[in-house]
Design a protein that fits this description.
about 210 residues, alpha/beta, Rossmann fold, seven-stranded mixed beta sheet, 5 helices, 7 strands, about 30% helix, about 20% strand, binds guanosine-5'-triphosphate, binds magnesium ion
């Protein structure tokens, strides 16, 4: 039996591997992958930076639609697993053709990637679960891809509001067979919930 992975992995060698604009450009499926999905601007890239303690590893922006391809990061040297930072879904202002292209890319990757161990589905603490999030959750249920819901930007709402949203989101998550029953509450800004997220990622890699 191999030793369990330690969170110090996130302080060690981590590097950007490649961007895949289409499935044919995906890296060789030789190690487990963990994906970060969610609506545009929810904070996917920021959370990857907070988790790896590196500003600017994944590119972030105030403007939705920053991440436009599947971006892969190698964790560990020797390589242990990969993180995939995905384009946001549900971005109404992008041209319909672009939205469609991202949608196919995201869905095809999530549904068809054999080495994908878990998807973290990010939900903005200010907005809760939107219809487009439910669609993605249903798609993951159907494809039997295990996922875990993460509330982001917890620093942007008052504690009482956060409690209400977290309860609602947990209630919805419980109805989804492939969703992990426990939510993660995070703020990349305040580094809240980041240790728990690291443990959740390592647990998924080893699952
Ligand atoms: N206050 C606060 N702002 C955050 C947090 N996380 C992200 N942001 C801000 O939200 C904006 C979007 O963050 P990104 O990480 O680029 O979001 P994304 O989900 O990767 O966006 P796309 O790649 O466009 O889909 C940026 O201006 C971030 O600084 C957080 O925890 N707290
Ligand atoms: Mg991004």
């Amino acid at each position: 039996m191999t030793a369990p992975l330690h969170p110090k992995l996130f302080s060690g060698p981590i590097s950007f591997l490649k961007s895949a604009p289409q499935l044919q450009f995906l890296p060789d499926p030789k190690v487990p992958e963990i994906a970060f999905a969610g609506r545009s601007n929810v904070g996917k890239s920021s959370l990857i930076n907070a988790m790896t303690n590196r500003n600017g590893l994944a590119r972030t922006s105030n403007t939705p639609g920053r991440t436009q391809e599947l971006n892969f990061f190698d964790i560990g040297d020797p390589l242990i697993f990969r993180i995939c930072d995905m384009p946001g879904y549900g971005y109404a202002k992008a041209p319909p053709k672009v939205v469609q292209k991202w949608r196919f890319l995201i869905n095809d990757y999530l549904r068809g990637r054999a080495v994908l161990k878990r998807t973290f589905v990010l939900i903005d603490s200010r907005h809760g679960i939107k219809p487009v999030d439910e669609e993605v959750m249903e798609m993951l249920d159907k494809a039997a891809v295990s996922y875990r819901v993460v509330l982001t930007k917890a620093d942007k709402v008052k504690q009482e509001e956060l409690d209400v949203t977290a309860a609602k989101v947990a209630e919805i998550s419980k109805k989804h067979p492939a969703a992990h029953p426990d939510l993660l509450l995070t703020s990349s800004e305040k580094k809240q919930g980041i240790d728990e997220l690291r443990l959740a990622v390592l647990e998924a890699v080893q699952s």
